[in-house]
């Protein structure tokens, strides 16, 4: 008989230990496979960590054992899911992030291989199921169901996998929707014609040689957009592949993968793509190709850092400063940190590319930990856009037809339409209006789960919480005073789109934001249309700001530059600087001079000024003084502890107890404990939350203390603890 030590599928710290199960069958069980087990009267998935051969049967064994040992229900896999390196990586991540091992396996594996009950039914079939609307009547539906029905109605048909399963089920049972099957569009293998490597500029050549030479291992490739970083990535990849090694190329988000994939496909074969908008079966296929060693290049977003490539010679993290490289749920890993961990094993070259490196990365480069490389010129010496800051507080600057726009921006847009050139407008807020207000009693509507003000979305005429996804129908009357007129206050991307269409009725206008991204291929189609000059004005959130190389864009308008500055996080200035710099960098590519207009209520703010002249160094120096004063990264490290419970009193008592406990422990060390504070999102999943922030200089100062803290909390019932190392935000 074999005794299996099994981790069960819940990735929470109170269950971060193995449970023993027996297996009396014939198969020789290997560690690293999944099994089905009965746990607390439920069939769930377990991940085998260790196997012991025992010379007894279960009855005899049971007599000697202190606990009841059950048999597993079923063996799921034949071969281990993760190779030796990735198993070791999971251990290193567990040490660094204080995260439950299971949560790390869940993050590492693609959907259909995750040790999770729900993964077992993930489709591996070769056709798509679409949902169509059958009955538009919304009577007896919940707000979530209505939201989904309206989405389906608006887009005629939607992939079933894009929608929440329980909502689909409910709508189907209520006879509102129907299913249609269509042969699967496999990963659209766009035909691209092969291109030759370009002749490099001197700077590019120096960077390429340095990256592919012996010596340094990690590089910061700093260069403005359009300075030819991607060309360096491509040629470095070629050299590495010629040496028989593999390449991993990370991009910050889905909307950028297709462009990067295209550029790699123009040069190479045997590429796999990994990112979150693939269906589970597509991901499964790509994952298998990689682990079988059939590809030598992987392009993907954050989780592609776990690609089971062997013999990696080069890892590139493009736009390394972007926050999407950090996963904002347990285990809270950062792709760059994971890359550094894998580097110890593979000894690969790691290239971090950015026009605006994160302050942490730049500091390391200045200290010589990373080797600094520069691309200072835009290719073909095309100059940076000419930028104007418009003070929106001065009424003389405001357009006569629309308070949303300045006279300057209005004129420039018209000018571009006349010249058949393209415009991009950045508004970093989705939806129609950030909030609605009763016109009589001024009441605003808040999310009942997390207390955040609800945004109005015109597309489906609903109110939505941008934090937890709560939705409700737009009320017909004020819940407080019964009045039936509401003001829609402020503006988001939908409103900007509406306004632009009103002001320029003949222009071809499109919008890109995460609402649009819900619909499969819509983002890609829109970008392709824009690239092909079939759209004159593209409006969007930060999704449009990054990476795209559109040759005919000669005007970028930042509709409201101040949006990000008010967020109470130590990174809000850095984010805003990056966003504006990147956005206006879209204007004027290889052969055309660009212009940019920044509309702001803070025309004298250093972030606005520095980004308008695209002066990263000036921003870096100013921001670093603030970081030093406030003792924030990169001057210290942060660990954010979140405690959650349904029992508020218990939570408050425990959090103060823990704070005092920590302060006593840290009395003689350079460690600061802040809180417990009530976070911005006071309630998540109906649990109250409290946060304790730890600022430290040396890792060894907090190592044992945090482990102990996790233990203390796990021994207290009904309180959950989450540890976020290197959080992107301090509130
Ligand atoms: P980045 O990644 O820094 O934004 P890219 O590599 O995308 O820059 O280069 C910007 C543009 O310049 C692209 O259209 C690219 O094809 C072109 N380009 C890059 N390097 C060269 C080169 N050495 N010679 C000619 N054109 C180049
Ligand atoms: Zn909410």
Structure description:
There is one protein chain. This protein is globular. The chain is built from 19 helices and 32 strands. By secondary structure, it is of the alpha/beta class. The chain starts with a strand and ends in a 6-residue tail after the last strand. The strands form seven sheets. Strands 12-13-11-14-15-10-16 form a seven-stranded parallel β-sheet, sandwiched between helices. A six-stranded mixed β-sheet has the order 5-2-1-4-3-6, with no helix packed on it. Helix 2 (84-97) packs across helix 10 and helix 4 packs across helix 5. The chain binds adenosine-5'-diphosphate (ADP) and zinc ion. Adenosine-5'-diphosphate binds at residues 198-201, 204, 223, 225-231, 379, 549, 590.
